[in-house]
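Give me structure tokens for this 359-residue protein.
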Amino acid sequence: MNPIIQALENLLGLIGIDQGVRPIGAFVLILAIVGGLLGLGFWVAVRRRWVRPATAAFWLFVSPWVFGFLLFTLGPMVYSLGLSFFHWDLISPARWAGISNYQKAASDPLLGQAIKVTLTFAVVSVPLQTVLSLAVALLMNINVRGIHVFRTIWYLPSLVQGVAATILFLWVFNPSYGLVNGLLGAIGIQGPSWFGDPDWALPAVIIMSLWTVGGNMIIYLAGLQDVPTELYEAARLDGAGRIREIWSITIPQISPVIFFNVVTGMIAAMQIFTQAYLVPSSTGSANGGGPGNSLLFLVYYLYQNAFRMFQMGYASALAWILLVMILVLTALMFRGSAFWVYYESARPAKERRRASRVR
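Here you go.
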């Protein structure tokens, strides 16, 4: 592939394209050539009646996504799987390692700490985000004057994420002049050092994760407004109170929405990286994983092995271990969803089991 790219860059140089943009130009040319070949192939297939015009049009329009998926997602995944069976430091040639990278992972105490920290963060932060965002959505679903302004105010923080939000909370949790310790001091409580304390660093990151509940709130709000009002009217005729309505009508009706947010939230929590990368360096911690490795998240530990210790094979093995963990947790959640997620077009799990026993 390198000679082809080099030839394309030389061609771009002949027509006066600047040296700095030639790699991008070569990439665009490759995409144009591939697209042209695909279009020509589909045109021939339609002319010879191998496929219908509608089928050819479908594949032609989705081909950019398919090409991007193969090139930027599936290709790197397959490459990393193969690389996990090698030792490679980015400089010397790769050496076959067999399953030694996975054997190393099985006895790596830092990996155990990283898994512990990551799972703890996911198990605590995801339920808190779910409860808080659902509670806010219930409040924002009330039809009062100016409610649209309050919805906007609650949603706005979710627009500030990643590095910006982390830097903001470094100031908020500053032990000397931060907002949190200032409020605690006003009521006579000595605040902790937060990111400098191994006992409080992870809780501080969990609190940070609640900053973006506005995004989930919007999804819950859409689900709440889709619940039929006739169900609430019937419940009120039966004498049901507000709490009973929420428990027996609202939560079952929006349970697919809750399930979606929980699954996506868990997957995102297992891949947390920005806070683990910025917080220790910003607080002057000598240990990249925070005080006492209390912020040694799995993705950050993977990054350390790949781009600081240049153990690309071991880092690839860690990436696949993380993928397996996410797949297992997701499968367990889907398995458990049959007992609490309600779909109007599907019978409850108890009825399905009863029907299978009858047959």
